[in-house]
Amino acid sequence: MKKVLIIGSGCSGLTASIYVARASFRPLLIEGYKLGGQLIDTNNIENFPGFPNNISGYCLINKMKKQSLSFGVRFLDSVVLSINFKSYVKKVYLNNRIQFNCFYVLVATGASNRFLNVYGEKKFYCNGISTCATCDGFLTKDKTVVIIGAGDSACEEALFLSKIARKVIVLCRKNRMRASYFLKKKALLNKKVFFI
């Protein structure tokens, strides 16, 4: 029996773990598919308070985990398959056949990459199609790259790839960009980034 279980190891899950641990509940944090979630792959974070000279997602997540550990948060490298919320005591089922009973479950599962579900997408994933510029950007050296989307992630990836690729084309799926003003402005001013 656990008092508090936290699902997700991105910024929100790690922040929640610090608050819960400081309240003397000794939470167990289920990391999910990868510690830090999508943020761990972010190369350059400019909008996180306390880091005026930027920080990488990897460094930020590791600092947050270290702080969580200093308050006694326990971590488990596993994935939650299902949760039964029907009774006062919640039942949480993990992929390694472990089951936890707990009173409180905090769900901080964040986001994941979205696919278009078009022909050839699965066939060419990791062979021309990528969801991580930081991971695969070196493959785009002196090439034309297409990014689909117009939110913060698309603009961040476009800015990163503009340092490597010859040309970056961003396909906006709607008639407007959803990115934050600062990122949108940086991307629009970049001479190697083009929006369609």
Q: Any overview of this molecule?
A:
By secondary structure, the chain is of the alpha/beta class. The strands form two sheets. A six-stranded mixed β-sheet has the order 3-2-1-6-5-4, with helices on one face. Strands 7-8-9 form a three-stranded parallel β-sheet. Helices cover 27% and strands 22% of the residues. The protein contains six helices and nine strands. Strand 7 (144-148), helix 5 and strand 8 form a beta-alpha-beta unit. The model has no long low-confidence stretch (mean pLDDT 92). The protein has two domains: 2-107, FAD/NAD(P)-binding domain (3-Layer(bba) Sandwich); 121-191, FAD/NAD(P)-binding domain (3-Layer(bba) Sandwich). Residues 2-178 form the FAD/NAD(P)-binding domain. One of its GO terms (molecular function) is oxidoreductase activity. Keywords: Flavoprotein, Oxidoreductase.
